[in-house]
Amino acid sequence: MNPLLNLTDTPSFDQFKAEHITPAMQTAMADAKEMLNKIKAQDEVSWDNTVEALADLGEKAGRIWGVVSHINSVADTPEWRDAYNALIPEVTMFFTEISQDLALYQRYKSLRASSEYETLDYAKKKKLNNDLRDFVLSGVELPPDKQIEFATLQQKGAELSATFSQNVLDATDAFSLHINDKQALQGLPENALAMLADFAQEQGKTGYCVGLKAPHYLAIMQFADNRALREQIYRAYAVRASELDDAKRNNAPLIDEILQIAASEAQLLGFDNYAALSLETKMADTPDNVIAFLRDMANRAKPFALRDLDELKAFAKQHGVDELQAWDMAYFSEKLRQEKYSFSEEEVRQYFPLSKVLQGLFQLINELYGVDFVEENRPVWHSTVRYFPLMKNDEKIGGVYLDLYARSGKKGGAWMNDYCSRRQKVSGSLQLPQAYIVCNFAPPETDGEARLSHDEILTLFHECGHSLHHLLTQIGVSGVSGIEGVEWDAVELPSQFMENFAWEYDVLANMSCHKQTQDRLPESLFAKIKAAKNFQTGLFVVRQMEFALFDLLIYKEKTQPINWQGVLDEVRKEVAVVPMIPENRFAQSFSHIFAGGYAAGYYSYIWAEVLSADVYAAFVEENNRQKTGQRFWQEILSQGGSRSALDNFRAFRGRDPKPDALLKHLGLVE
Q1: What is the mean pLDDT of the chain?
Q2: 434: which strand partners?
Q3: Where are the beta strands (DSSP E) in 353-441?
Q4: CATH code for 3-99+101-137?
Q5: Does residue 463 have an active-site annotation?
Q6: Start-end of H helices in 319-439
Q7: Measured between alpha carbons, how far apart are the two ends of the chain, in Å?
Q8: Residues 162-181 pLDDT 10s
Q9: What residue ranges do the domains of the chain occupy?
Q10: How many angstroms separate the CA atoms of 370 and 337, rounded?
Q11: Can you name the CATH fold of 352-509?
Q12: How high is the pLDDT of residue 670?
């Protein structure tokens, strides 16, 4: 039996093999096509025989492909990748054909016009209207020849995105610098040295090896006294997947094609540009509105960023560096932070063993929502992955897989994704939501404990916020349950909101236990961490505005491909304060917008932060976590995508969002 064809509530992740992928998907797609013909052959149209029936057939194939894509991101092997890549065109065409099926679209329109529509609850109405919009955005109303053209573009775009992402992973994994002399790594803390020694051992070498995975890169950038080494690692990182790296995995031509395809899709659907098409499913009105918002944020942040940079330059000069370079930024920032606030990230890390952090995080979630995560043994894709069902009054309401450590064959960064969503089936059974949380923390140290910096705690809280949005939904309608159907520029609200609690002393103290002394985090050290909260926020915000403006401006161009590197250079002139080396090839590894679903949507992070800061302000004002937490669950988390994000916000806050809380939160007010 092919285990991919039997994806139950407890999937057999330990049994999936590359050879299962093609037969499983082809079987699921053939079954779906047969079922689709039966749906369309019926004379009567109802919610159950159309929308629910389509959800059934889409879920089987969609879940298999979701698992295949997930494994491709977290446990990439040549065999798995080959099978995955080979199927992308067929799978993309399968889903595109369903979304362009005119007979199916007519059934949905008939249901919308029927008397049954008025009897549907608000979640079902929202789902139906979303689906009708998505049919149109998939080209269902185009003439047949244009439909074929649109489907071909979708297929090619999916292939290019996968290749882009794989090129970045390969470029990251390919680099390894072997160092035998420990002196060359002076300044690195013991845990970082142990990590680099382990990496060398994995490669059958003595001494140390430095790769480009985030824990390696950050350790060198932040702590290595050896300036030449910092420059070497920075330059290797900055040219990943470009013509300056390896011509076989140069992403520049792929960017041209991705932009060309996006513009062609938009024009086929009658939009001026891809940015306008992208915003059809988001909160923001027009690309120009978003650009004005981003420029306003950049203008507010830039004076603070220039002040941050001047301070850093003066500090570096005192330490013998007359001209601050890109590879000096993180190093001198860490040294300056230590001098200003008398603590280092490494000192903080000693207080936060992962086991204790998880325990404290789960206690906070219990306080906010009255629910519990309790670990359970089940099949996983890697020995370090853990599974936690979510319980409410001893009843299971969902579950989450935690995959927290960096390793070869795993994409960099941190994200949350879903295995399945909450769904009330026609049969009466309730499908419970399940999610994945993926991070890239340094693996456990010699005592078996991984330890987190405060930044990593923020990352964990962020991804946990996403998973709670998915798991705490009370909507049982596929497509608007959990994170499904939530406007992309509002989906970061629950994740950014969770980060706020990592700045509260009782929360941090509760999850701390010093490596040597077993002491809790002292209030004096917390006060320093809190005082440093907005350290270099100006620099951070202008960097985010640089990414978001670049993204929106390139996707707003009608004629493609454009000189996107020229656009990036112009954006940097306008908003950036830190000069880049000419060889920096940032765009070629900007997977978010070329392979990660954030095309013309990177602005979402700062857009949603306006909402999340305002939501958290209510917790501060009311000063009752439990009471406000229950209201937040009820009005925002539980609703999923069944109401608009703005309606959810208004229901919770009683008014429209204001940016004041965010500016204060970021320290961007005098």
Answers
A1: 96
A2: 399, 420
A3: 372-373, 386-392, 395-405, 415-420, 423-424, 430-431, 434-441
A4: 1.20.1050.40
A5: yes
A6: 329-341, 345-349, 354-369
A7: 65
A8: 999 999 999 999 999 999 99
A9: 3-99+101-137, 175-239, 249-343+536-602, 352-509
A10: 38
A11: Neurolysin; domain 3 (1.10.1370)
A12: 74
Query: Is CATH 1.10.1370.10 the classification given to domain 249-343+536-602?
Result: yes
Contact 59, 406 (CB under 8 A): no
Residue type, 31: D
The C-alpha atoms of residue 122 and residue 128 are separated, in whole angstroms, by: 10
Locus of tokens 């908003």: 575
Residue 13 CA: distances (Å) to CA of 80, 285, 406, 588: 14, 42, 19, 32
Beta-carbon contacts of residue 619 (< 8 Å; ≥ 6 apart): 500, 625, 628, 629, 632
Q: Which of 59, 265, 346, 463 is catalytic?
A: 463
Helix, strand, coil tally for the chain in percent (to 5): 60, 5, 30
Q: What is the mean pLDDT of residues 101-112?
A: 98
The whole-angstrom distance between residue 267's C-alpha and the CA centroid of its chain comes to: 28
Paired with 418 in beta bridges are 435
With a pLDDT cut of 90, the percent of the chain lying above it is 96
pTM (two decimals): 0.93
Q: Which two tokens stand for residue 246?
A: 């390896």
CB contact at 8 A, 547 and 525: no
Amino acid (1-letter code) at residue 30 = A
Cis peptide before 561 (omega within 30 of 0): yes
How far is residue 506's CA from residue 483's CA, in Å, rounded to a whole number? 29
* Token pair recorded at residue 473: 């939904």
The neighbouring-strand residues paired with 441 are 405
d(CA 438, CA 380): 13
In single-letter form, the type of residue at position 341 comes to Y
249-343+536-602 matches 352-509 in fold: yes
| CA 242/CA 585 separation, integer angstroms | 7
Cβ proximity of 333 and 584 under 8 Å = no
What amino acid is encoded at 185 in this protein?
A: L
pLDDT per position as a tens digit, 647-658: 999 999 999 998
- The burial class, CB within 10 Å (0-12 / 13-18 / 19+), for 297 is buried
State both tokens at 150: 């649109």
The dihedral formed by the CA atoms of 210, 214, 215 and 221, expressed in degrees to the nearest 10: 70
Cα–Cα distances in angstroms (integers) from residue 358 to residues 364, 393, 520, in the given order: 10, 20, 15
State residue 149's pLDDT score: 97
Extract the tokens encoding 371. 């629910």
> 465 with 494: CB under 8 angstroms?
yes
Residue 619 CA: distances (Å) to CA of 498, 646, 652: 11, 19, 11
CA-based angle 196:202:205, to the nearest 5? 75
pLDDT of 91 above 90: yes
How much is the pLDDT for 668?
86
